[in-house]
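INFO  loader      accepted 1 record
INFO  loader      residues=300
INFO  predictor   begin
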Amino acid sequence: MLRLPLKENQPEGLDVCFVGVPMDHGCSNRSGTRTGPRAIRQESSQIRPIHLSGAAPFQTLNVADIGDIPVNPFNIDKTMDIITERFRAILGAKCTPLTMGGDHTLTLGILRAMKEKYGAVGLIQVDAHHDLADTMLGEKTAHGTPFRRALEEELICPKHFVQIGLRGSTYLEQDFHDVFEWAQNLGVRMVFADECWYKSLKPLMESVREQMGDMPVYLTFDIDGIDPTACPGTGTPEVAGLTPIQAVEIVRGCQGLNLIGGDVVEVNPLFDRSGATANMAANLLFEMLCVLPGVKNIRH
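INFO  predictor   done
INFO  writer      dumping tokens
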């Protein structure tokens, strides 16, 4: 990633690591996200080390790519356990993880490890979908259920949980009660895509920063939060999404938060031969790196 050294499964001594989770057995529509980390790494090779904002992360942080987590493609619950175990080791080494996906189920495994170190954390989720379903086709573990499980397991604090970019359609009328009302009654903040149309998201992120305060915050970015005209390479595209500019505003708006990690998920290169989706994902991960605590800014 970013032409950085490869220190396979060796987070010790690093301040930040990039790590891939090549899985797609939580997908409900078009599989192929297991190839996401590879494509993101390839597109990242053209990103330069100093951000034009002045952020120079490599001048103050020791960063490397630690390779991919060896998932079990035949058992999703075992895969969650593997992810939690590996991220427990990453966090134990005092290393901040930036993760390449992989379908969105993977974030559940990460949050389980985060709770062991930080307790319940704040969560900023950029996504076309709420991922709060109780089950998908009767299964409790899938890419549409991770944040239901996370709330049930108290991995995240609902009053410090913000979803941005929600849109699309739903299966059942009862979803409005069983998902949306249920979550909002817990204190989850839902920002629908049509609330973001035709505007800058800087004011939104100012309020998000106020909401999060100084608590540990994890940022999870589903690439389908962005409109498919810009990022078609994803398994469940939804029209009328966020723009690339708004996506960058969200990540840059995390500057100043106690950011403890982040991921970009649901990149499916099989549906975007141009590489534009993976390129966007690589740039979002670089943007995340640049807003982490401790990054030097050479313009200040």
